[in-house]
C-alpha cells in the first residue's frame, strides 16, 4: 500500500500521549496466590477510578488491581481527551436512550465531572487540563438544522452554550468546511489522557491499592462465596470483582453479546509555529467534533499540536490488534480529511499515527453486566466518550457490587442492557457495509443513506 499524502511519511505508528519519556516504570506482575476484598480487572480509566473510589470510601478495604499490560496502554491512552459533563455520550444521545431520566442524568453528569476534577486537584495531577469548552461544528448547510435542535436542547437543560453562525465559527476556528457551531463552555475542555491515567495510577497506589501490571486474567472460577481469578503466575480470590475490560470484553463469554470492538484512527501533527497557529485561530482552544457522517474530532495539545481522529472501522471477530492498522497507508484517508478541514496547514507534517479499539454498543454509552450471582460486574461501552464518564461507570459498578441501594441503581441505565449485536459472520458483514456507507454517504449519498437509516431504525445509532 502506498500513501498519497507525504505529510504522513515520517509519522511514528504509536500514540502521541504514550510517547513520553516521563511515562512511569511498570510495577511487578503478580506471582503466587493472594486474597482481596475487591479485585478490579483492567488498568484503564474505569479500573483506576473504581480503585480510587473504593479506597476513599473505605481505606481499610483491600483492593487489588490487575492490568494485562501497562496502565494506560489500552483504550485510555489513545483517545482525543475531550472533557465533557455527559455520562451518556452527549445530551442528544441521553434523550434518545433515556428521555424520562434525562434531568437526573444531567445532574449525575455534573456531579461526576465535579468529582472528577476534585480528585485531580486533590492529588495534584498534572494532566494538561484546559477548560476551553467543547464545540460541535456543522459540515455543510444540511446539518445546521440538526445542530440547531441540539443547541435548543442544551439551552432547555441549562447549559452555557453559544450558537455560532458561519462568521462566528470561522472567528473561533478557521476552516472552509465549518458552517455553524455549538459551543458548550461550562465544565468542558481537554486533557492529556495518558498523563491523567498515570496520575490516577499514582493516586491509587498512594491510597494503598495493590497494583500488578503485566498480569493478564486467564480464567474465572466461581467458588460460591468468592471468585477465583487465575493469571499466568498467580491467582486472586475475592468476593467482589469489577471487570473494567472495555472493548476486550474479558471476564465472561457473554460480554461480547452487547459490545463490539470498533477501531478508531488518530493523527497528531508536529508542533505548530505561532504563524501556523494564527492561520487557524483557535484562541479558545476548544475540543471539536464535526457533523460528518463518519465523525471527526480534533483538539490542540498543550504544546500546540493538532490531534485529529475519526474513521472508525471493524475487523473480523472483534480483532483488537489487526496487522493492517500497523501500516501508515491506513491513515492516508484520514490525512486527506485533515487537509480538507485545514487546507491552510498543507505544510504541516504528522509525527504520530495510531489506532485502537473502542467498546461500542447500541446505547453508545456505559452499561453494566452482572455475572456470577452479582459477585462480578462488567462496566463498559463508553463508545469513545469515556474520559470523564468512566468515573461515573466505575462508581455505579461499585454501587452494584456492594449493593448500596442508592437511587441511581433503579434507573433504566442500571437495570437494562443495550440491544444484542449479531454474531459473526453477520457482525462483520453488516459492519463492512456500514463502514463503507459511513465513508461515502456525505459525498455520494444514494443507497448509503438508505442503509444508514435502516441500521439506525434497527437500534444501531450512527
How are the SSEs ordered, and which strands pair?
Blueprint: E1 32-35, E2 38-41, H1 45-57, E3 63-66, E4 82-83, H2 91-97, H3 102-122, E5 134-139, H4 144-156, E6 161-164, H5 166-172, E7 178-184, E8 189-190, H6 193-206, E9 210-212, E10 217-222, E11 227-231, E12 234-238, E13 241-243, E14 260-269, H7 274-280, E15 287-290, E16 296-300, E17 306-313, H8 332-341, E18 350-360, E19 367-371, E20 376-380, H9 386-402, H10 412-415, H11 426-444, H12 447-457
Parallel strand pairs: 1-12, 2-3, 2-13, 3-9, 5-15, 13-20
Antiparallel strand pairs: 4-8, 5-7, 6-7, 10-11, 11-12, 14-17, 14-18, 15-16, 16-17, 19-20
Helix pairs in contact: 1-6, 1-9, 3-9, 11-12
Task: Describe the overall structure.
By secondary structure, the chain is α/β, with parallel strands linked by helices. It has a domain at 426-457. Helix content is 31%, strand content 22%. It is built from twelve helices and 20 strands. It has helices spanning 45-57, 91-97, 102-122, 144-156, 166-172, 193-206, 274-280, 332-341, 386-402, 412-415, 426-444, 447-457, and strands at 32-35, 38-41, 63-66, 82-83, 134-139, 161-164, 178-184, 189-190, 210-212, 217-222, 227-231, 234-238, 241-243, 260-269, 287-290, 296-300, 306-313, 350-360, 367-371, 376-380. The strands form four sheets. An eight-stranded mixed beta sheet has the order 6-7-5-15-16-17-14-18, with helices on both faces. A six-stranded mixed beta sheet has the order 9-3-2-13-20-19. Helix 1 (45-57) links the parallel strand 2 and strand 3 (63-66). Helix 1 runs parallel beside helix 6 (193-206), helix 1 (45-57) packs across helix 9 and helix 11 packs across helix 12. The radius of gyration is 21 Å and the shape is globular. The mean pLDDT is 94.
Amino acid at each position: 500500500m502506498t500513501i498519497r499524502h507525504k505529510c504522513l511519511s515520517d509519522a511514528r505508528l504509536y500514540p502521541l500521549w504514550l510517547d513520553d519519556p516521563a511515562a512511569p516504570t511498570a510495577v511487578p506482575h503478580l506471582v503466587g496466590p493472594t486474597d482481596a476484598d475487591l479485585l478490579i480487572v483492567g488498568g484503564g480509566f474505569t479500573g483506576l477510578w473504581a480503585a480510587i473510589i473504593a479506597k476513599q470510601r473505605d481505606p481499610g478495604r483491600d483492593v487489588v488491581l490487575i492490568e494485562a499490560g501497562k496502565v494506560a496502554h489500552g483504550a485510555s491512552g489513545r483517545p482525543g481527551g475531550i472533557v465533557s459533563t455527559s455520562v451518556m455520550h452527549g445530551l442528544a444521545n441521553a434523550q434518545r436512550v433515556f428521555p424520562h431520566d434525562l434531568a437526573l442524568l444531567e445532574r449525575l453528569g455534573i456531579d461526576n465531572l465535579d468529582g472528577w476534577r476534585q480528585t485531580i486537584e486533590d492529588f495534584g495531577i498534572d494532566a494538561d487540563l484546559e477548560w476551553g469548552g467543547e464545540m460541535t461544528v456543522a459540515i455543510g448547510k444540511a446539518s445546521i438544522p440538526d445542530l440547531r435542535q441540539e443547541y435548543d436542547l442544551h439551552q432547555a437543560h441549562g447549559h452555557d452554550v453559544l450558537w455560532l453562525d458561519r462568521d462566528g465559527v470561522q472567528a473561533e476556528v478557521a476552516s472552509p468546511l465549518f458552517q455553524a457551531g455549538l459551543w458548550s463552555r461550562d465544565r468542558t475542555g481537554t486533557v492529556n489522557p495518558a498523563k491523567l491515567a498515570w496520575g490516577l495510577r499514582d493516586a491509587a497506589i498512594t491510597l494503598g491499592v495493590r497494583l500488578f501490571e503485566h498480569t493478564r486474567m486467564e480464567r474465572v472460577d466461581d467458588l460460591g462465596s468468592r471468585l477465583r481469578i487465575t493469571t499466568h503466575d498467580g491467582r486472586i480470590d475475592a468476593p467482589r470483582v469489577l471487570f473494567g475490560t472495555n472493548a476486550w470484553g474479558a471476564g465472561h463469554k457473554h460480554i461480547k453479546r452487547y459490545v463490539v470492538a470498533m477501531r478508531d484512527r488518530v493523527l497528531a501533527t508536529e508542533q505548530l509555529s505561532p504563524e501556523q497557529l494564527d492561520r487557524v485561530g483557535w484562541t479558545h482552544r476548544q475540543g471539536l467534533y464535526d457533523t460528518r457522517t463518519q465523525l471527526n474530532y480534533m483538539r490542540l495539545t498543550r504544546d500546540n499540536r493538532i490531534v485529529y481522529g475519526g474513521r472508525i472501522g471493524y475487523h473480523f471477530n472483534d480483532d483488537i490488534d489487526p496487522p493492517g492498522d500497523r501500516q501508515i497507508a491506513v491513515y492516508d484517508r484520514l490525512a486527506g480529511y485533515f487537509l480538507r478541514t485545514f487546507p491552510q496547514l498543507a505544510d504541516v507534517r504528522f509525527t504520530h499515527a495510531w489506532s485502537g479499539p473502542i467498546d461500542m454498543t447500541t446505547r453508545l454509552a456505559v452499561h453494566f453486566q452482572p455475572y456470577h450471582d452479582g459477585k462480578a460486574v462488567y462496566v463498559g461501552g463508553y463508545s469513545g466518550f469515556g474520559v470523564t464518564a468512566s468515573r461515573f461507570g466505575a462508581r455505579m459498578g461499585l454501587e452494584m457490587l456492594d449493593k448500596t441501594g442508592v437511587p441511581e441503581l433503579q434507573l433504566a441505565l442500571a437495570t437494562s442492557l443495550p440491544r444484542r449485536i449479531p454474531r459473526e459472520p453477520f457482525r462483520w458483514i453488516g459492519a463492512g457495509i456500514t463502514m463503507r456507507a459511513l465513508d461515502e454517504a456525505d459525498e455520494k449519498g444514494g443507497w448509503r443513506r438508505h442503509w444508514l437509516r435502516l441500521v439506525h431504525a434497527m437500534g444501531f445509532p450512527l
